[in-house]
Fold this sequence. Notes:
GO terms for molecular function: DNA binding; DNA-binding transcription factor activity. InterPro entries: Tscrpt_reg_HTH_GntR, WH-like_DNA-bd_sf, WH_DNA-bd_sf. Keywords: DNA-binding, Transcription, Transcription regulation. By secondary structure, the chain is mainly alpha-helical. The chain has two domains: about 20-80, Orthogonal Bundle (Arc Repressor Mutant, subunit A); about 85-225. Helices cover about 55% and strands about 5% of the residues. The protein has helices at about 20-35, 45-50, 55-70, 85-100, 110-130, 135-150, 155-180, 190-195, 200-225, and strands at about 40-45, 70-75, 80. A three-stranded antiparallel sheet has the order 1-3-2.
Amino acid sequence: MYDKQSPFSVNRLPGPRDSLSDSAHATLRAAIIDCQIAPGQAVSEAELSARFAFGLAAVRAAVMRLTASGWIAPDGRRGSVILPVSAAHLADLSVSRQCLEPALIHHAPPSDLGAELRLRAAVHHAATLQGPGRQAPLHQERDLMGLIALAVAAPRIRAWLIDTWELCLRADRHLEQSFGMSRDALPLPALAVAVADGDAPEATALLERMRHDFDLRASRALARSAVPLSPAPAPAPRRGAAPSTDHRSGTTPGPRSTKGDPA
């Protein structure tokens, strides 16, 4: 059945009934997707607490959840590092979509979910025609993607699909910021209607088109990038080690990173 209380039902903003840790998790996740927290950036719980106005306990719980899902990696005494956007990461997203998206068309959704999909598709399409700002489409895309994913009966596959789609949105946002590679609006209203109608051929064609366009943008970015798509964090200096000085510039450069996947 379509459960509107499901955590995967809507990618909504934090509300008054959410716990502080849930609100912190939703806020940090949204900031990561929109690249307000950049891929590859090192962050500490204290910095996140001050920036997003949550207590340390709520931020710590949110970071633990994001770490468990692979969006953040621990980085020793410096705190954590946001998952970089690398060639390997983009390839993993593409393969994951090929594996997960067919689950959308195995079964027709319940009638109430189908009706909600058609309604949201119409609203999304109308809002797109009005030409809203950059942030509004991203929020709407996340919201509609979360609803479409409810057509997947298996909760774990549904959660993996939402994670993969949202990481693709983040990759697109990063490519836009780094290379000026904007994209057209995703055909999500048409996909929502196809899923609601149980139209497997149409849904399959739309999903393949979305994957092809994503792969094409990734390939273009990789062809233009001689360095990792997002900077990998430099390792923390060893205790007691004196920083080296670049005598040509008079500056003290940071240590070279060994992380990241060159594009």
